[in-house]
Amino acid sequence: MSQVVTDAKLFACTQSMSLAQDIAKHYGIPLGNVITSTYSDGEFQPSFEESVRGARVFIIGSTNPSSDHLMEMLLMLDAAKRASARHITAVMPYFGWARQDRKDKPRVPIAAKLIAKMLETAGATRIITMDLHADQIQGFFEKPVDHLFASTVFLPYLRNLALDNLTIASPDMGGSKRAYAYSKALESDVVICYKQRAKANLISHMELIGDVSGKNVVLVDDMVDTAGTLTKAADVMIEKGAKSVRAICTHPVLSGNAYERINNSKLEELIVTDSIPLTEKSDKIKVVSCAHLFADVMKAVHENKSISSKFLM
């Protein structure tokens, strides 16, 4: 009689290979073997080069654009399902397309809901992700979602800075809940930036709600894309008398001329996780790894242990 495989198996999508290797190291097992074949027209096919029958499979991959990253995750989920894996968990440090979480004007898609359905159809029986753009995206899934907070890795870093007159800031009204949670943990004040956009990624006006004079300000956001909001907020706060301005952003999307903006900005530093690999180096960008957070949660999930402590801000 063949023996049922009960050990967990970890596999990586190509875009998250470095993070996946760190997760596997903290978990204590090697990454599984996957070979990806690519056709001349760009079509690709991932293949598990080991049995996953009866196993709990974790597939690690962020789905930041390009869309090939999402497609690779979907294909690997489908391959695991068709290879008779017992449980298939999509580990998505960055859940891409999450900004499209509602209809904010007529005749547009709700992409985050579509992605959720695609992941489940492909074979995901569980999702592990971190700092969703909107908490309610969890409700788009019919499968369990473990929504982790990057504050688990950011708060120790902030405490080690030992900044006096610390003030937490949100770069927009939508991030106020996150800012208040950080301020509660750090026992600090809070200020909010009110911004108006001319269009996506273009700010037409920004005002500051609160006093930053003489304060060391830390901006908190779930992601940094073009860095227009962060650098504009830093300028406004320095003009209002802030002593220093830092930013912590979970997901370093950093598109367009984001690196140039950050390097030329009044930000002391930008602290990010390795949910998305950096494409350039910058003296102002500090990476704090989230590998141990995901490894701990994945191991607890596999062993059917509580992970509630990882949700605490």
UniProtKB/TrEMBL annotation:
Q: What is this protein called?
A: ribose-phosphate diphosphokinase
Single GO molecular function: kinase activity
According to the entry, every stretch annotated as the Ribose-phosphate pyrophosphokinase N-terminal domain falls at 9-123
Q: Which UniProt keywords apply?
A: ATP-binding, Cytoplasm, Kinase, Magnesium, Metal-binding, Nucleotide biosynthesis, Nucleotide-binding, Transferase
Q: Which organism is it from?
A: Mesonia algae
Q: Which InterPro entries does the record cross-reference, listed alphabetically?
A: PRib_PP_synth_CS (IPR000842), Pribosyltran_N (IPR029099), PRTase-like (IPR029057), PRTase_dom (IPR000836), Rib-P_diPkinase (IPR005946)
Tree of life domain: Bacteria
Q: A Pfam family name for this chain?
A: Pribosyltran_N
